[in-house]
Amino acid sequence: MFARRITDKDTPGLISQMGQDLDETHVMVRRMQKWAGETGLGDLTEALRVAARAINEATGTAQDAYRAATDKKEARDR
How far apart are alpha carbons 50 and 29 in whole angstroms? Predict the structure, then answer.
């Protein structure tokens, strides 16, 4: 398979997909956290809480990066 170079035009779409993946991952981690809490696995519950917070932070950063990439693309298209 031939790979092509990723360009600035590709960036918004890639970041958007990452954001969607992060959202789905956050939901999954929260479900695992809830289950671990109900099961009495305190250390796992805490680790998953930390993971959920990190995923949430990454999602916010991805949103910022998406806005910056789309602003850059719009400025270039003018």
Answer: 10
